[in-house]
Write a structure and sequence with these properties.
Blueprint lengths: L4 E2 L5 E5 L2 H4 L12 H6 L17 H14 L4 E5 L2 H4 L9 H16 L3 E7 L5 H4 L7 H18 L5 E5 L2 H9 L12 H25 L5 E7 L3 E2 L4 H13 L3 H9 L5 H7 L8 H7 L5 E5 L5 E4 L5 E4 L17 H13 L5 E5 L17 H19 L4 E6 L19 E3 L6 E3 L1 H12 L1 E2 L1
Parallel strand pairs: 2-3, 2-12, 3-4, 4-5, 5-6, 6-8, 7-9, 8-11, 11-12
Antiparallel strand pairs: 1-15, 9-10, 13-14
Helix pairs in contact: 3-5, 7-9, 8-9, 9-13, 10-11, 14-15
Bound molecules: D-gluconic acid.
């Protein structure tokens, strides 16, 4: 019989979502436009020209979201606040009705025993700020600070866990280099690195806003994509993967300056003349200590030594299982993301802030969705997580990505990642087999 794997008492189990992906209500009650409203309305930018105008309509169905998590036995909810919903032009005037929505959501969470973990920025920049240069400009980081202060003043009597920025490398790279996410720009590396720098600055300012204005003891962290694994445990491959974490843009450009102070020299060498411009004061703000690191884990490169003191990527095995987004299923990423983050980035508290998979779901004759591939996926990644925790990794909680099938950026509604199926007509959230799996796992606080 397989060994049962217990999680520690008080372990945080939750689901994660993002405002633009779930809320809908894109013009409701005085909300301003975001870059995602603009981008998704341009024909050809998203799968099937899908957009988040309505999506799961959490703006009106938040009670159903909370009820779904309560049913699953969860004790936390990670959601994001839409900047243009609360500050339609990105700075200045606040929208009272927008702020009131999050009051209702937070209160509903607390009533259901869900600890709110609030992301301040999950990619929906107010369009008005993009019109003035968006993340290319330091002014956006400064505007973010004012927005963060507003949120902390308003909600910190009830919210104790904050993530100012979600996955900076992804929105910067996909939005300002590859052009496949909003705002759809294709900038030079110099500009892209400057956007990255400004997003880091915004995060640091967000952390400082929490420290300065929180009404109770609170914690902050970033939610960041972390996921490379070594090709083997040989000393050479281990050195190579560590170098990847330090010089690659995911680590060296983002986590290193936040957690260890200053850009890693391997990153600066790689960036050369395209390195961002920065002041000492910027670097101090960026290095403001966080209380935890949130790792978003899906899949990642497998790294080996290149024989010349560097690293190279090796492809996953041909027969690796893939999700419907073609992402390889690599549970080892979970183990290594946690182990290497702890080792390299000087962190003593971790959360898995996202983990999930898209598969093609079918409603069977009994009216249910038996998403057994997704259950298998979660089981294997949770096992890997548990193994890292057994070895001492300080992981305090886990958030599944995601609660309900929602709008997945440029993939639109083509890829499903929810543990609940969303009926887009009635708004009904129906548990899939994977939701039942979490319900069981959380109830027993153990796997197997
Ligand atoms: C994130 C993620 C999510 C996506 C998920 C599946 O950065 O937080 O991109 O928003 O929905 O990664 O694509």
């Amino acid at each position: 019989m397989a060994k049962t794997m217990k999680f520690p008492k008080g372990f945080v189990w939750g689901a994660a979502t993002a405002a633009y992906q779930n809320e809908g209500g894109w013009k409701a009650d005085g909300k301003g436009p975001s870059i995602w409203d603009t981008f998704s309305h341009i024909p050809g930018k998203t799968f099937n020209n899908d957009n988040g105008d309505i999506s799961c309509d959490s703006y009106h169905h938040y009670k159903d979201d909370v009820a779904a998590m309560k049913w699953a036995g969860m004790n936390a909810y990670r959601f994001s606040i839409s900047w243009p919903r609360v500050m339609p032009a990105g700075r200045g005037r606040v929208n009272a009705k927008g702020l009131a929505y999050y009051d209702r959501l937070i209160d509903e969470c607390l009533k259901a025993g869900l600890e709110p973990f609030v992301t301040m920025y999950h990619w929906d920049l107010p369009q008005a700020l993009e019109n003035k240069g968006g993340w290319r400009k330091k002014a956006t980081a400064l505007a973010f600070h004012d927005y963060a202060v507003e949120l902390v003043k308003r909600y910190s009597d009830r919210v104790r866990n904050w993530m100012p920025i979600n996955e900076a490398p992804i929105f910067v790279h996909a939005g300002y280099k590859a052009g496949i996410h909003a705002p759809g720009a294709k900038e030079s590396w110099k500009v892209v690195n400057q956007c990255a720098h400004n997003s880091l600055l915004a995060h640091g300012l967000g952390v400082r806003a929490v420290r300065a204005y929180a009404k109770q003891k609170s914690e902050t962290g970033i939610a960041h994509p972390v996921f490379a694994s070594p090709a083997s445990r040989s000393a050479a491959d281990m050195k190579a993967v560590e170098l990847w974490y330090q010089s690659d843009f995911l680590g060296g450009q983002f986590l290193w300056p936040m957690c260890n102070g200053g850009y890693h020299k391997a990153f600066l060498k790689r960036a050369g003349k395209d390195a961002p411009d920065f002041t000492d004061e910027d670097m101090e703000v960026i290095a403001t200590k966080n209380d935890f690191l949130g790792v978003n884990v899906y899949f990642g490169p497998i790294i080996a030594a290149d024989g010349k003191g560097g690293y190279k990527e090796v492809p996953p095995p041909d027969d690796v299982q893939r999700t419907s987004m073609h992402w390889p299923v690599l549970p080892d990423c979970m183990y290594w993301a946690v182990k290497l983050s702890e080792k390299l980035f000087n962190v003593d508290k971790l959360y898995v802030t996202e983990n999930g998979a898209s598969f093609v779901d079918t409603i069977l004759h009994d009216g249910k969705i038996h998403d057994l591939e997704r259950v298998k996926f979660f089981r294997s990644y949770l096992r890997a997580l548990h193994r890292a925790m057994q070895e001492g990794a300080p992981v305090k909680g886990y958030f599944v990505w995601t609660l309900c099938d929602n709008f997945d950026w440029n993939s639109g509604y083509g890829d499903k990642l929810g543990i609940f199926y969303t009926d887009m007509v009635t708004g009904n959230r129906q548990p899939k087999e994977s939701a039942r799996f979490f319900r069981e796992t959380i109830k027993k606080n153990r796997l197997g």
